[in-house]
Amino acid sequence: MKYQTQKIALAYFAVAMALFAVQVSMGLVLGYIYIQPNFLSELLPFNVGRMLHTNSLVVWLLLGFFGAAYYLVPEESEREIHSPMLAYLQLAIFVIGTAGVVVTYLFNLFDGNWLLGNEGREFIEQPRWVKVGIVVAALIFLYNISMTVLAGKKTAITNILLLGLWGLALLFLFAFYNPSNLALDKQYWWFIVHLWVEGTWELVMASILAFLMLKLTGVDREVVEKWLYVIVATALFSGILGTGHHYYWIGTPGYWQWIGSIFSSLEVVPFFGMMAFAFVMVWKGRRDHPNKAALLWSLGCAVLAFFGAGVWGFLHTLHGVNYYTHGTQITAAHGHLAFYGAYVCLNLAIISYAMPILRGRDPYNQVLNMASFWLMSGGVVFMTFTLTFAGTVQTHLQRVMGEGYMDVQDQLWIFYAMRFGSGIAVVLGAILFIYAVTMPRREVIEPGLQSPAE
Ligand code: HEM
Ligand code: HEM
Ligand SMILES: [Fe+2]
Question: From the CA of 17, which ligand is nearest?
Answer without folding.
Answer: 1
